[in-house]
# Entry
Amino acid sequence: MNSYKAWFLAARPKTLTGAVAPVCVGLSAGWVSLGSLQWVPAALCIAFALLMQIDANLLNDYLDFRGGIDREDRLGPQRACAQGWITPEAMLRGIAVVTAAALLTGLPLIAWGGWEMLIVGAVCVIACALYSTLARLALGDVLVVVFFGIVPVCTTYYLQAGNVGQEVFLASLAMGLVTDCLLLVNNFRDRDTDRRVGKHTIPNLIGERRTYILYALIGATACALVYSQTRLPIFYLAINFYLVSRMQRIRRGRELNKILGQTAASILLFALLYSVGIIFNI
# Structure
């Protein structure tokens, strides 16, 4: 209980690539525009994104435990509070420490982005705190698009270039959509248990068949948004279609965790393809 291993597992390290990928997209766009990068704000953006992702994971763990969502029939990875690895009191202290660390990490960004960075940081913390509540109302997807796409990509680029153009915004929207595929698979896997506890998610609202269509449509839309900048993300689209076909074959159970892991990897692939594409003008 409350061991270092328990905290490591509660931080859910496999999810951290989703926090870094949009920052890397913003940095790649900055490199193309400026020919170089300011490495201190770049490093601070990566650190802030990682800490906020960990914070969101810990808070989600605590709130879902308190809300009775993490039941014995949970299909996803085990949660620290529900398993008794970390006490609720210790989890609250951990959340406070990580939140403070994230804010202290982001504070120096004022030197490059002005006092507006305080607003960005505060909004990120508020969104993190509200995520579990809004996710039960089928609004988690909106938060993912905004805070795993638009906010990190545009803010990272702004700190490098001092402005945000249309191409960067489209790339940020594409990144948010691609990341939302991860939430879509997660909610698709948990649709039966979510329904039993009264949690509303997109798969429960639109049904199984439309969820498959939405997953594929999200990938196609993301590629279309950046097509004028680079053609390379087309390779991501092939992976997207392959994964949705596997979802159709599996349909239910813990086997969908494999699709979840592969979708997480595809987010990083999209970011890599986009970055390489715009840097080498492919």
